[in-house]
């Protein structure tokens, strides 16, 4: 049994014994192992074992008789409020997040865990408040898709270090030994980069954010660098345009959007790429607008490819892409969480899942394209 530093040992042993009783490991009418045996099993003191067994007795799960031992009286399931889990998402988009939330809720419910949903709105203070509210609600564990930034909430770090049940989704925490469920972003991005390179696109431009930084976006960019480094046309620094200053959660007014779109147009005019790589669907929407305003035909004048497009909207705004398996991510996250809560060993603390490559025809072979002066 792996212990958490977040709660007293006797409480953890109490919960483990309760779990084993519910699972039938200690049948009704049978006796629990003697205190000395439990001390050896859990490697704790007699007082710690006594406190744990006394908690079982106080809930009527066992009865203790001097000279006889401790007899199991009944099984007991945790009441719904005691099995509540929490989930914190920065927001939801049809491209990524909406299906994840539905699948996460369904998968948790099938395991008997209702879910409290909180949204951080890509705001640091709001994320911290969401964490505190879930702790105040006495949730047993928290799923979190962290904000897009290079530093992490101190309370989140404290919970992970104290081994409170936390499963991080989608964006790994660099340098932190967290439990994680998400896409294998490196393999996925390499697949896309290899497809674009194979189509003969030597001069590409990866469009990213000016201020936003997270492990997923960084890995996607690194994958393109790695793949193109093996070709005769490795990417220069100018191939990475960190020019987008708005986000899906923060785009104050039309002027800010117009300025981002103009920066994309300037990038196209200056670098003359044959293909634009968009790191997420929000950037994809801005790139689409920029190319339309410039009167460029996709894919004959310029190609567009990227990650996590909104596949439910009209085909004209889709682009060749890598799509994450949100259902599998949710199922893996819930599986990891239930193993933690039931004190089962984790074969892997990190689950990285494959994605799908979808060709929507927005990138063609370089030889079929027009030559842009």
UniProtKB/TrEMBL annotation:
TM annotation in the entry: none
Domain HTH gntR-type: 7-75
Keyword Manganese: no
Presence of keyword NADP: no
Keyword list, A-Z: DNA-binding, Repressor, Transcription, Transcription regulation
Domain of life per record: Bacteria
InterPro entries: Peripla_BP_I, SBP_2_dom, Tscrpt_reg_HTH_GntR, WH-like_DNA-bd_sf, WH_DNA-bd_sf
GO molecular function: DNA-binding transcription factor activity; transcription cis-regulatory region binding
PANTHER family linked: LACI-RELATED TRANSCRIPTIONAL REPRESSOR (PTHR30146), RIBOSE OPERON REPRESSOR (PTHR30146:SF95)
Protein name as it appears in the record: GntR family transcriptional regulator
